[in-house]
Amino acid sequence: MNYDWSLFLKKEYKKPYFRRLMKQLKIEYKNFICFPKKEKIFSSLKYCSFQELKVVILGQDPYFQENQADGLCFSVPNGVPFPPSLKNIFIEIKNCFNNSFPSSGSLTHWAEQGVLLLNSILTVRKGSPGSHKNMGWEFFTDQIIKTISNKKKNIVFLLWGKYAQKKIFLINSFHNHYILKTSHPSPFSAHLGFFGSKHFLKTNEFLYEKGKKTIIWV
User: Fold this and answer.
1) In this structure, is the dihedral angle defined by the CA atoms of residues 203, 204, 210 and 212, taken in order, positive or negative?
2) Distance between CA 212 and CA 200 in Å, rounded?
3) CA-CA distances (angstroms) from residue 183 to 75, 187, 191?
4) Contacts within 8 Å (CB) and 24+ apart, 27-33
5) pTM score > 0.70 for this model?
6) Per-residue model confidence as pLDDT tens digits over 22-54
7) Could you confirm whether 61 is annotated as catalytic?
8) How far is CA 2 from CA 76, 81, 90, 164, in A?
9) Catalytic annotation, pick one of 4, 61, 70, 142
């Protein structure tokens, strides 16, 4: 991960839950096919530095099919077909900016601009969504959200769906953060508010008002 994250999270590495998590992950990756690849587990903290962070998008756990998970929530590697939720994200971006549809589903360029694409659970067994739930990742990623909320100001939090919105209690209301909530971009719920939410446009308007560089979403 990016070095500046380690300055804030080094205490977590020494806690019993994190040590148990690391031991359990070794067993999981040895005995099962798990995603993402081990070297990509912390990609969200690698490509988005703490210093440059401006936006947080929260997901649940990684894609559980072959070649999809790249360590960034909703993102897939170049050349991989868009999963339905990601396709709907791109549709909403097109609605905001009238851009052409992207050729790649990789969101690395978002992360490099200061968008933290953070799953609550950072790993998963192949073909088994939620399989690494309650192993300890939630404690770790909740601490990341708390750290951002307490140490940063004027951060945009995009909370899509009920699972992400449960994390709102972690966000410090005194630091002028901008919280945007709507339904999940899944085909089952995108029509319940995600489409037409204009979250990408609203995010850029807020960043501009605060004197920050806006995000190139396309």
Assistant:
1) positive
2) 15
3) 18, 10, 8
4) 28/123, 28/125, 28/132, 32/125, 32/126, 33/125, 33/126
5) yes
6) 999 999 999 999 999 999 999 999 999 999 999
7) yes
8) 20, 28, 27, 24
9) 61
